[in-house]
């Protein structure tokens, strides 16, 4: 019994393979259409996004840079400052200073604050469709956040290690990446549709299907003949072509 089940599964897999093989041109064509469509959409519709970054160096008021305790305290302060950078007082001041038409939530989505491992450096990165605006927001965040940190922590303001730069190349979207995703999605979608339609089609088309699904032996097959009207139409077409 186990052998018969294995044979049935093998036959089914073979059928699926041949279905995919017969419809391979449709799958590839759909993949090409998907890749071209997403590529054109990315290039012509999606706006390029630029990223500008600035860096702050966190130094505690009493840090002497000589003891392990000082270093650990500086590292802990860096983590606290990382949270303060995107606090509402800071974002509100940045919005006011630059006269931005953005809410706190919208501005925070543009900001990314990183703290490289084992350092007291804060990297503030800003994404925007305007490279000049990305630079301005990053610089303003560094200035406002530095003053706010000194006020809250009663310590020396963090030093600005590197001012924001003007980005000249977009960081996203990637036309190549999106084109590949569109092609893969098109191929997957076409293959899935073809397989689903095949699996859901339970029509009996061959003598082998009768034996497989109904468990009956096929004694004979009856050929399908054209009806009289169809034959007459073909005859009339032949006569016209001869004239």
Structure in words:
There is one protein chain. The chain is an alpha+beta fold. It is built from 9 helices and 4 strands; from the N terminus they run H-H-E-H-H-H-E-E-H-E-H-H-H. The chain has helices spanning 2-22, 24-44, 68-84, 88-98, 104-110, 131-153, 175-200, 207-214, 228-242, and strands spanning 50-57, 111-114, 121-128, 159-162. Residues 1-11 and 62-71 have low confidence and may be disordered. The longest helix is centred in the C-terminal third of the chain and has 26 residues, at 175-200. The relative contact order is 0.16. Strand 2 (111-114) and strand 3 (121-128) form a beta hairpin. Helix 2 (24-44) packs antiparallel against helix 7 and helix 4 (88-98) crosses helix 6 (131-153). Strands 2-3-1-4 form a 4-stranded antiparallel sheet.
Topology record:
Layout: H1 2-22, H2 24-44, E1 50-57, H3 68-84, H4 88-98, H5 104-110, E2 111-114, E3 121-128, H6 131-153, E4 159-162, H7 175-200, H8 207-214, H9 228-242
Antiparallel strand pairs: 1-3, 1-4, 2-3
Helix pairs in contact: 2-7, 4-6
* Radius of gyration computed on alpha carbons: 34 Å
Q: Proportion of β residues?
A: 5-15%
Walk across the major sheet and give the strand order: 2-3-1-4
Helix content: 55-70%
Q: What structural category characterises the helix and strand content?
A: alpha+beta
Give the topology string: H per helix, E per strand. HHEHHHEEHEHHH
Mean pLDDT: 77
Morphology call? elongated
Instruction: Catalogue the unreliable spans.
Output: 1-11, 62-71
* Major sheet size, sense and barrel closure: 4 strands, antiparallel
Would you report the number of β strands? 4
Count of runs of 4 or more consecutive helical residues: 9
Distance from N terminus to C terminus (CA atoms, Å) equals 66 Å
